[in-house]
Write a structure and sequence with these properties.
2 helices; 4-stranded antiparallel β-sheet; 90 residues; Alpha-Beta Plaits; 4 strands; alpha+beta
Length: 90
Amino acid sequence: MTRQQDDHVIVAIHVTNRVKQAGVVQKTLTEFGANIKTRIGLHEATGRAASPNGLILLELVGGKKRCTDIVATLNAIRGVEAKSVVFAHE
């Protein structure tokens, strides 16, 4: 009997004002830390100062409900937009 693979759940988080939202976004990510398998942070760096905008990519584990919860929690933060993509295994 073979074990069915879990779906790949990717969440993209666009932060429009990193200075204002960084703390609350980090708090949220810490709250859901057990469900974050991979985290990649992207922002434009000019060498002088970091961009005010940022993009965070997450690979999540832990079931559909937890994934839905993290996206909803992030979208409730002003200036933050989160979207998910699910790659299902058949």
